[in-house]
Structure formats: C-alpha cells, structure tokens
Task: inverse folding
C-alpha cells in the first residue's frame, strides 16, 4: 500500500495523463528501493483500483488510466452487505442527497451537461412506451444532475448508488402512468436547473425522490427489505 501510494504520488508530480507510461521497472525498483515482487503487487493493486493498466509484451508496462466508480461501488456494497443492510438504505440516501445536488446544479451545471439533461428528458418522452429507454434515460438524468452539481464526490456516489439499485436488476417494473409522471417531473427539474433557480430545483427533486420512495414502498416493499449482496440481481 505504501509503495502504491508513492507510485500515485509520482504520477501526480510528473503530471502524467491518461495513456502515459510509467517509468520502467528497473527505475522504479531503484527509486523505491524495493524488491520486484513488492513492486508488482503494488502495481497489481493499482490496476484493480483502475489507476493503471498493465500492458503485456515488449514495449508494455504500466499505463496511466482514469479510475471509475467501480471500486467505490464494490466497497460500499461489501460494507452494507456485512451490515445486513437492505436496499431501502440506498433509497434513503438518495432522498437526502439528490435534492442538494439539484440545488447545486442550478448554479454550477455546464452548457454541455444541460444539453445532456435536456436530451434525456426529450428522448424519454419520445419513447415513453419503451421501458428500457425509460430506465436508461432516467439513469442519464440522475447521473448528469450529480455531475452538474460540480461536486466530484456526488457524481461518483450517485453513480455507485444507481448501479446498486438498478430497477431493472432488482425486478422493478414501471407502468406507462409512472413513466409519464417521471418524465413530467424530470422536465420540471430541468427547467428549474436551466433557469438557475436553486430553490425550485431542490423542491422539484425532493418531490421526485419522494414519489420514487412512495412508489417503491407501495409496490415493492419486499425488494426494499432485501439485504444488499455483492453481485446480487433480484
């Protein structure tokens, strides 16, 4: 772990970008004054965290990558599994977090993110009879609000939570009436964010997340009470 931390520190100091190669093994062995086995274990750990990719063969070696949220999702899932926490834990977390994200997004969202948000609303409405597109566009909408908050932690956290509570994965279905209502509230949130109205964005997201909670509590209480398990699919 200590060597892995030093390798990441070196990446930052050198200003390495995604796709850059790290120094050759012999140079890292000299720099860190360690054995080959320790170095390779450290690199393997960083590979598992998504920090590097180990390219085999001549001219290969460790290549800098952009970590994604998979490590965070796995860590949260395992922590909650060992607490025997149910899926409702995730819904409760969203209830607390997403209205704040919408409020921040009203002040911070970029034009590109705003365009993505609008596309998700429009595409959902154009294909309101397609439940698969509904789930996909709903995911895009909430991911974009989180990213648009300007808080990187929110972005990764919501992405992880949505991966854990993917309605299509735990057996939830969404009738057309529910899809239309969701599209309407997404549009209301979008309009508030686009107008830069932080208070309205927060209130609209609170309304939306509360409706999600009530729908799932009414129709899928057994899913909400199911203990979270790594790799589980309802």
Result:
């Amino acid at each position: 772990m200590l060597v892995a931390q030093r390798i990441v520190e070196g990446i930052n100091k050198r200003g390495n970008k995604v796709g850059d190669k790290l120094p050759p093994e012999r140079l890292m062995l000299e720099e860190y004054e360690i054995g080959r086995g320790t170095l390779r274990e450290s690199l393997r750990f960083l590979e598992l965290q998504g920090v590097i990719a180990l390219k085999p063969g001549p001219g290969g070696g460790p290549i800098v990558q952009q970590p994604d949220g998979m490590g965070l999702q796995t860590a949260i899932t395992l922590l909650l599994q060992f607490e025997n926490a149910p899926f409702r834990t995730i819904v409760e977390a969203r209830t607390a977090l997403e209205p704040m994200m919408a409020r921040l997004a009203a002040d911070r969202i970029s034009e590109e993110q705003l365009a993505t948000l609008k596309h998700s609303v429009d595409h959902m409405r154009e294909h309101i009879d397609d439940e698969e597109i509904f789930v996909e566009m709903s995911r895009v909408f909430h991911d974009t609000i989180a990213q648009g908050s300007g808080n990187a932690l929110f972005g990764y956290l919501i992405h992880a939570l949505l991966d854990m509570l993917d309605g299509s994965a735990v057996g939830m279905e969404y009738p057309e009436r529910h899809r239309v209502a969701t599209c309407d509230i997404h549009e209301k949130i979008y309009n508030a964010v686009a107008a830069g109205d932080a208070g309205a964005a927060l209130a609209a997201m609170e309304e939306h997340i509360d409706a999600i909670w009530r729908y799932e509590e009414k129709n899928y209480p057994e899913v909400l009470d199911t203990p979270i398990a790594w790799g589980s699919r309802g």
About this structure: The two ends are 35 Å apart (CA to CA). The domain at 70-224 is CATH 1.20.120.530 (Four Helix Bundle (Hemerythrin (Met), subunit A)).
